[in-house]
Amino acid sequence: MFITFEGLEGSGKTSQIPILDSYLREAEYSVFCTREPGGTPIGDQIREVLLTRENTAMHQHTEILLFQASRSQLVEEVIRPRLKKGEIVLCDRYADSTIAYQGYGLEVDLAQVRTIVDFATGGLKPDLTLFLEVDVEAGLQRRNQHGDVNRLDVKNLDYYRRVRAGYYEMMKAEPERWEIIDANKPSNEVQTALREIVLARLKENGRVG
Ligand SMILES: Nc1ncnc2c1ncn2[C@@H]1O[C@H](COP(=O)(O)OP(=O)(O)O)[C@@H](O)[C@H]1O
Ligand SMILES: [Mg+2]
Question: For 161, left (φ over 0), alpha (ψ -120 to 50), or beta?
């Protein structure tokens, strides 16, 4: 089962995933966690290029292609082999992030972006995508308190509002794949909600740990 986590900055993806991972392991599920961009040695090098603040000259199309290069490597080197072994793969961001951030956010032609994303994933889609819903301002505030701001973080509020609207378009188009979690709530409540949804899905699929 392939589960991805999406949502704006500060929605809690990176802090919630390891806690969910430990919980599922304790329930004796076989779980593997990864993240984008990166997750492989080649992907981590691409991640550096994408996040380095000095890379201000990066063209939008270069950015899109670098994300896909990292993703393609992750899918083939890590995600597909793990899924084949029957593991549950939890991924911090995936293809939907490109559609939301580069497609809707940067307003790059959506049909073209989708084609490139499909090429990179080889058509591998998540079984379940958890959308951590947070208000744009609240999320950015959480992230800013955190400190380190990278190249991708330096964007204005309108950009993030387009990203958020983009996510909602995608959820409307494929409601069965998505679950929305209210991530404005305290972290422990978010974790409880995530566990309930994931356990229910695993049981639906006949997986008992
Ligand atoms: N539900 C929450 N309530 C308050 N602060 C939170 C919550 N979830 C995450 N945070 C804090 O917000 C910051 C960003 O969280 P993070 O998990 O990195 O989000 P993301 O990976 O979605 O950008 C961290 O400092 C984290 O501790
Ligand atoms: Mg994160």
Answer: alpha
> How is the beta sheet containing 178-182 ordered, strand by strand?
31-35, 88-92, 2-7, 128-133, 178-182
List, in order, residues 6 or more apart from 84 with CB less than 8 Å away: none
Is the CB of 9 inside a 6 Å radius of any atom of ligand 1? yes
Atom of ligand 1 nearest to the CA of 5: 22
pLDDT, tens digit, 9 for 90 and up, residues 161-178: 999 999 999 999 999 999
Testing ligand 1's pocket by substitution, the residue of 5, 15, 160, 190 carrying the most ligand atoms inside 8 A of its CB is 15
Query: Residues 85-118: pLDDT tens digits?
Result: 999 999 999 999 999 999 999 999 999 999 999 9
Supply 102's token pair: 């580069």
H helix or E strand, kind and range, residue 203: helix 187-204
What domains does the chain contain, in order, with CATH numbers?
2-204 (3.40.50.300)
